[in-house]
């Protein structure tokens, strides 16, 4: 290896002219060399580094290329190693490279102090940048490195690279030992910066008009400040001189935050979020001195006087940041991102249009900004309120009027819902809603009114607590929404219907009681004027409206009134339904008219929307139409089958067949929605399930594949999940109707009938979970079909199908383990399941299933070490000698299986892995980590994104974060909290 490296270095050193001509070739050679060093010969680095440094000293051109090799080496080991190498190997590589860094350090310092060659100095700075995040601190703080970097910083040719190096150093944090050097570095830096970029510079304007280098400088400056402040802001709070420099740095960062560049703003926003969280937590925990002391790094117990002193320190710190935080509030209000609920946007031509697609980056940004603004609100409610009302007054008087200014302001106002005390929030909202309604009245132009309407709807939708406490405002707002439902500007009606639903969900009880000054409940008044209110709405908007009114009716405690309201709500669709069924009884051909089919579909969709809100209380309505609905279903199914039978597969794509199938699907969806939402009352199941057996299940079995509705599968999965063991007697008929014919549809390939695939396995899982005795009664051939289909499912590359298959497999394994057929089942399927699970675990296509793969394997290995299986798993006719127990047999089988599958791994490595599995069967985290290390070690998972292997830990972290957010008023939006609102 040493000879090979020396030859390469000699080649690089031999011909400078060739080096210049062959830059691409040399670049590829560098990468190859680094890969070899990284993976094959880490122990030989001690000879490589001296050889490389010696070569670098032969000429400046060669030195430049040597710097490129060193940079690549650092990046490969420290930036790109996770998931490619085991933790032990990464540690060895780091130690090896670290021990040789002195030579690299000396070379870099020599070049920076002695060379006049611009490209070499730039290459050296780039190399240093790659190393600075991990080298021993002495090389940084106990040498002339920082001093050298600060001398280069003012020079335009090196400014950005130097700033990147200084940023890496700023991000390091190893306690207080180097605090003095950090303060000195920051102070010198700020003096130099004021010369380069005077504090009064309009940074957003300078950025907009700057060159690429100048724009990169602003971005790098944002990275420097955020990195330094994240790790070392405390050390700058120690003296007035340092505080002045700190406040100046924050002022720079706020100005940079106004730059119209998404990436620059993301960098700044990330830091502002962390700073205000820190300030908020200290403020929030003032009542808990021990927690505050722990957060500030104080480990000593606090006496009462010390606690008082700590409180004073925290108050002083809040005062110190009061000015920057006030400016930050204005920044957040001025740049607030668009929330998901807002549907009305300005297009590239300056027109107000309905949004067609959500921008996920904007939604993520909104979430972070909202969180930041809520912390800022908690830190100073009065300043937050003052800034928002001041900006709103400038909208009213026209001084600051623009669509963007009003939008960002209202999005900010809506985002802080729940963060103020209720009394202050009420006072604030009264002024805000009053001013917005006035603005809507005085402003001319349809586009302007659409923007204002959008903002009114967003703001009121965010404050259900306020609306519940102020009936007159609530009624005014809802009536305003009804006005907007007649406004045909794109997006306004949709948003009005969405906001109405959101408000009703949180305030529904207010609409079913007689309020002071009213003659009847609002819901009764609404039902009287319902035809007028929905006159200008599209069908999908009417469905949303019916869902909202259903929510109101569901809140009515009096059954008689509730049934009366339901009957009044359904008058319009029921009149049309009665008319259609009456005409059909006279001539069945009436149902074949496309306009009639559309009307039937619309009626069913309206019913589904109401059923989704009313649940059990929808029973009188669905009973009224149920049998006629099944007759229409049967007739349309026959029409579809005839069309496809006569016209072949092409017929299924004709508009008439698509329309007929939409009616069938909506029928199934309506029944499923009702049964799913209804309370678990057996008599409801007994009333609705038997009449469906032939029209729905029989129809599915009789139909040609292209005419089978996947919703049949999900409907019966819902029924079994709902009524559980009560459905055992019906499972054979369900199985007979759907199993064989669906398998034939979905096992020909991985593409056809995607909906049937997922819903079929969901149905199987429901049966395995709640009606397992019915599966035990299957013949061995039928059970084999089930197991083959499960294996087929978890092999699937569609994540939902694979996960459903794995969950179903786990249900089957647990149920058979607890049954009298455990020996028979596992003897037949144990080895097949183990082999198939290892196949998907290691094929790199099924990473999202990692958690479930691990659970299946853990189940299998725990099982063979238990006393549950009393018969051998091996076949005595094919195994030459008996094993002492099943565990020993499975251990040897697994070693053979993996050795054959991974010839690149030694027998010792495979044996060690299998032994580790058996040793950790009862410790899931250790078992899981053991498998992760094996996947990396096998090299099957090298150079890939392996985040799915850590998905479970990421999900747990998300849940911990949600629990933390729930503890802070306003941090979870009112409409995201799934609670049953109780009116005060």
TrEMBL record:
Name listed for the protein in its UniProt record: Protein EXPORTIN 1A isoform X4
Organism of this sequence: Nicotiana tabacum
Primary gene name: LOC107766762
